[in-house]
Amino acid sequence: MRTTPRCAGRPVYIRSLATYVPPRVLTNRDLEKMVDTTDEWILQRTGIRERHIVDPGVATSDLAKEAGLEAIRRAGLTPDDIGVIVVGTVTPDMMFPSTACLVQHKIGAHHAWGFDVSAACSAFTYALTAGSQLVAAGCHEHALVIGADVMSSIIDYTDRSTCVLFGDGAGAVVVSAAAAGEPSIIDFEHEIDGSGGPALCMPAGGSLRPPSRETVEQRMHYVKQDGQTVFKFAVRKTEEIARRIMERNRIKPEDLALFVSHQANRRIIQAAAEKLGVDQGKVIINIERFGNTTAATIPLALNDAINEGRLKKGDLVLLCSVGAGFTVGSVLLRWGY
Ligand code: UT7
Question: Do 158 and 283 fall into the same domain?
Answer without folding.
Answer: no
